[in-house]
Amino acid sequence: MLFYAGICQENEQKKLPQNTCKARNINTFKRFQDMTRILFVCHGNICRSPMAEFVMKDLVKKAGLESEFLIESAATSTEEIGNPVYPPARRKLAEHGIDCAGKTARQLRNEDYKRYDLLIGMDRANLRNMHRICGGDFDGKLHLLMEFTDRPGDVADPWYTDDFETTWQDVSVGCSRLLGWLMSRDQIGEIVK
Fold first, then answer.
1. Given 8, 21, 42, 175, the catalytic residue
2. Which of 5, 26, 89, 188 is the most buried (most CB within 10 A)?
3. What percent of the residues of the chain are helix, what percent strand, and what percent coil, each to the nearest 5?
């Protein structure tokens, strides 16, 4: 038995009375609904979007807002599904004390549009593919990360340049400004529109 958000698994159920398990499940589901849910997206989900995922997780943790967010990442392509974060991206995160162990690439799915409040692409090609996969952007949830900065455009793609420092800078500024935007609009825990 596996309940929403993995809170009440079979081994836990054996330790707790059934009604306790159900109550924990309901509370967890309510907390999940109240969270601001962000999905970062790039082409392969092994460089830029996982960097953004883990930078944003680090920022919200440092701000004491960890329980207010669900932050994940995905790919628009199937090329890297199941692969871990690309080693140079992993090293760049580690240089800044950020661990991304256990992350593997997954593909964006149509149902992700309903599940997340914001779906943040790294470049315009990602955004076009996100529109295609999600069937459009009916609620204004699809954005580029750099839209939240004073330098709109694309996050530098290190796959072709091997310049992970520039990507780090773009992702860091973008995530910091995104968090600031959310906090300034008092959007934490509400659906962002």
1. 42
2. 89
3. 50, 15, 35
**pTM of the predicted structure, to 2 decimals:** 0.81
Residue 123: active-site member: no
Active-site entry in 37, 47, 48, 117:
48
Q: 109 an active-site residue?
A: no
Active site residue 139: no
CA–CA separation, 69 and 107 (whole Å): 21
Show pLDDT as tens, one digit a residue, over the chain (193 residues): 333 333 333 333 344 444 444 444 333 333 445 789 999 999 999 999 999 999 999 999 999 999 999 999 999 999 999 999 999 999 999 999 999 999 999 999 999 999 999 999 999 999 999 999 999 999 999 999 999 999 999 999 999 899 999 999 999 999 999 999 998 876 554 444 4
